[in-house]
Structures are given as C-alpha cells and as structure tokens.
Amino acid sequence: MSRFHLISLYTFCIVAVFLAAMAYWSRTPEVPSVESTFQEQPLVLYPSSGSRDSIRLFDLPKEMSFAGEKVPLEEPDVLERLEREIYVNAYWESNMILLMKRSGKYFPQIEAILEKAGIPDDFKYLALAESGLMNVVSPAGARGFWQFMESTAKEYGLEVTKDVDERYHFEKSTQAATQYLKKAHAKFGDWTAVAASYNMGQSGFSRRQEEQLHSSYYDLYLNEETSRYLFRILAFKVIFENPGEFGFHLKEKDYYRNPELKTVRVDEDIKDLAAWAKAQGSSYKQLKLYNPWLRDRNLNVRRGRAYDIQLPK
C-alpha cells in the first residue's frame, strides 16, 4: 500500500471515531419515570425501636397503707401525687433494676434490725428514698445509707472522727436510725408523720402542723421535696411488692449478695491498714469495700475501745 493510501485510511479512522463520539454525547438522556424509580429502589419502612409501643398505663392500687396507716387514695391530689412517683420510678427502669438488685444485699438485715426495734417494715423503703442503699453524701453533708448529719449521728451514738465515721457503718447506722424513728414516733404519734419529719426535720414538721392547724401529712402544704418524699416511699413499696405488674421480672439469682464474711476484732492501733489487710489474707480494697466506715489509711484505737472489722472468708 502506498504512503498516500495509508494517510487516507488513517484520516478516515480519526474522522469516524470523532463523529461517533459526537453522536453519543449529543443524544437525549433517558430519564426514568418516578414510578420506575420507586420500583427499582422501593421505600423501606424500618420498624421503630418499640419503646413508644411499650409505654402503658398502670393499674393503681385501690387502697394501700404505710406502716399500717391508711393512705387516703380517695383524695384526688393524694392519688395524683402517688401516681406521679410510680410513673417516674417505674419508667426509670435502669435505676429501679439496680435498686432491686441492691436490695438483695441489704434488705434482709434492715428488716431484721427494724423488727427487733419494733419499727414497721415499710421503713426499709425510707432508706431507698434517702440513699438508694449507697453510702452517698448530700450537698448539706449528710452521709451514709440513712443520711445522718454529723451532729445527729453523734447524738445517737455514732462515732465520727478522722479515722472512723460510723455513718458509713451499715449495721450501726441502721440501729441509730431506729432510735431516731422511735423518738419521732413518741413525738408525733403516727408513722406517716415520722417518715415526713425524717426528710424536713422534726422541728420543721411540727411548725407546719402548728401553723396550718392540721396534724396529718396529707393535709399539710409542704415544700416540694417533702411533699414528694412520702409518695416516693409509697411508690417504692408498690413497685417492690408487685414487680411483675410493672415489667420487672428478676429471678433470685439476679439479686446482689454479700459474700460470707468473717469478723476480726481489733483493740490496738493499726498503722497501715493495707499491710494489716494483707496479713489477714485479704486486700485493702476488700477492707474498704466491707468497712467503709474506716476513713483513713490507719486506725487509732482509744483505750478500752475495740472495733469489729469484716472481711470475706
């Protein structure tokens, strides 16, 4: 083939490719219809989490009592206040589950101490309302399961020093609480007033009774916290006594339990609690976990005094 023919063929190929490209890019694009678009990519409706569907109304008790004393549920505001606390606590599921699980560690002993002291069993729910069964500290400085202020703790025989704070001693603080409750009952004459006064103080509650010419808690106009306080206790009682009605289905194995503990009596100073705990076959962590009333790294024991320290067997 001659040079001329090769050049002509090469030119023809370039022109053909150029015309084909022009034809492709100048074509009218095919736009799919709305109908075909949805057929190719159907709308998927994902199911909701179900939380909205799970919300339901609860059947309230037709009648109830606190410490053997009737709660006047026939009064509209009393029923509404109880209902408020039931819904607030029943639908705060995480907190309620933890309260229930934690009660396995402490309720049996609280019940035994209350019974021995002649205090109604319902006051175990007061400890729930006060602290959630934890050694918490309030903004005002009240401490422990029963939220004693330092002056009140000392008044009822609890030791509060740099080394030792028995407001954190579960058994001793519970016993001190029973003394306080019995004294309040001698003053007010009914357990409902005793529970309310635990929140606002005996003097404050007495003043409200005198000012408003009524003695019943349910007839008094009180501050927001005390107005809700007893109803929180009542809500705990309703939910704890009827857990399945509120969607809580804990089995026996679900409750927390303390391990079997041994008691070691100490009547001499301990200069290093960590070393002492290790010598007992335990650890500083376990020492503090089961004896939170020990507040320092050492323990000074006054003459004639002894302490019982609990450690896992």
From TrEMBL:
Belongs to the transglycosylase Slt family. Gene3D superfamilies: 1.10.530.10. It holds the Pfam family SLT. The chain crosses the membrane at residues 7-25. Residues 120-212 form the Transglycosylase SLT domain. The keyword Transmembrane applies. This is Lytic transglycosylase domain-containing protein. It comes from Algoriphagus taiwanensis.
